[in-house]
Amino acid sequence: MLEKNLTEIKQRIAAAASRVKRSPADIKLVAVSKRIQPERIYEAITLGHFDFGENYIQEALEKIPHLKTLQAEHKITFHFIGKLQSNKAKKAADLFDVIETVDSVKLARTLEKHCAALNKEQEVFVQVNIAREMQKSGVFPEECEKLLGELSQLQYLRIMGLMTMPPYFHDPENTRPFFRQLRQLAEELTSKGLLGRHGPVELSMGMSGDFEVAIEEGATVIRIGTAIFGARPH
To answer: How big is the CA angle at 105 (ends 158 and 206), to the nearest 5 degrees?
Structure first.
């Protein structure tokens, strides 16, 4: 089932990319593995998938060190995609290759301190609350410029791009304006020199229900859980 799901997702990625004349190779599929047993993640690795996303530090502590012992054979990357509190920043910096949910100067400076101690350059995304939903984390679009200006002073954080989670809709087409807004925001910030200093600007947006629309609007990272692993255990 896992092999079938991965194959189908990759076919859908390729089709969505083709519709807007993009290369599927420019889109990274992050398999969201929260509450998924390490054995199933290992199965995905044996099938040739090496990029995973986790939401909870405590769960990641129990899973990632074991899975990273496979690094001799493969370059396995883990993205942190949940809300990160400053008191968990040290563990996050130690465990994760990419942290997608930086949304404050305080969190960024705490990560910087721990990365300096580790002598580690940490790839991060700024999380944008594009729909201004009170229950979600992230900075509002108009706050991005100031935050990125502060982050640009830090030595160990590599600002790769922006990340967002739009509202949920039954019809994925309704997410399009939010994805488009994030892309336009990234273009504006890039023109001001606040993004793009560490390579092409990344946009992490799109999940199981709406990733094709996200790709059509410029996503370079999509985060897919249930469409790969099936319904999660509660």
So the answer is: 60
Cβ atoms of 97 and 78 closer than 8 Å: yes
* Distance (Å) of CA 48 to CA 73, 98, 114: 11, 20, 32
CB atoms within 10 A of CB 192: 10
Structure-token pair, residue 139: 């900075």
Report the SS3 class of residue 18.
helix
pTM for the predicted model, two decimal places: 0.96
Q: Nearest to residue 41, comparing CAs of 53, 57, 24?
A: 53
Identify whether the C-beta of residue 152 lies closer than 8 Å to the C-beta of residue 116.
Answer: no
- Domain spans in the chain, listed from the N-terminal domain onward: 2-229
Q: From CA 220, how far away is CA 124, in angstroms rounded?
A: 14
pLDDT tens readout for residues 95-143: 999 999 999 999 999 999 999 999 999 999 999 999 999 889 999 999 9
Buried b (16+ CB within 10 A) or exposed e, 68-86: eeeeeeeebbbbbbbebee
pLDDT confidence tier of residue 72, bands split at 50, 70 and 90: low
Q: State the average pLDDT for the chain.
A: 95
Nearest to 232 by CA among 58, 10, 34: 34
Please, what CATH class does the domain formed by 2-229 belong to?
alpha beta
Q: What is the pLDDT of residue 67?
A: 87
pLDDT at residue 190, rounded to an integer: 97
